[in-house]
TrEMBL record:
Top-rank taxon, per record: Bacteria
Basic and acidic residues bias: start-end ranges: 69-80
Chain spans, region Disordered: 56-88
Designated name of the protein: Uncharacterized protein
């Protein structure tokens, strides 16, 4: 986490690991424009609090997310976080201060729940595509030999695989 240039990787790892002990570091990244949206996603993955309503903020002032229409601009790299909402840092910190007692450090969490099969199945049923893909990998890693849950399959097949009614 101290290595320059690895902030993005560390935020993705923090969200995947799900340990609330990492949230003070994650919350500090909410004020770093290029990392803010990814930090919001990590916060949301651990706590289950969606970045909407009071937790949704405005884009960072002056932040240039990607290629411009200027033909002289040599940067053509697309913003990897374009689909992620901007978090409101102060409100996110207040939420964490109010609810941190619900979360045990050293215990992995996913969407606000201790990480177990039930929590992973819940993410597979209700989560967005990025979270569902992460839950599928986590589920397969927890049971060697179990095939990877196909989050790209038709919804009827996914529901059947989860034992859910249509």
């Amino acid at each position: 986490m101290r290595s320059p240039g690895l902030g993005r990787v560390c935020l993705v790892a923090a969200g995947a690991l799900g340990d609330p002990a990492l949230l003070p570091w994650v919350l500090d990244r909410l004020d770093v424009a290029p990392l803010a949206r990814l930090a919001g996603e990590a916060l949301s993955r651990i706590t289950g609090a969606p970045i909407e309503g009071a937790l949704r903020g405005a884009p960072a002032p002056g932040f240039d997310a990607g290629p411009s229409d200027d033909p002289r601009d040599t940067s053509v790299k697309m913003d990897p976080d374009t689909q992620l909402p901007w978090p409101h840092g102060a409100n996110a910190r207040a939420l964490w201060a109010a609810h941190r007692g619900r979360f045990a450090s050293g215990v992995r969490h996913v969407d606000g729940r201790p990480l177990d099969e039930g929590a992973l199945d819940r993410v597979l049923r209700l989560g967005g595509q990025r979270r569902r893909a992460g839950a599928a990998f986590e589920r397969a890693a927890r049971a060697p030999g179990r095939p990877l849950f196909d989050v790209a399959a038709r919804v009827e097949r996914q529901r059947a695989a989860l034992g859910a009614s249509p």
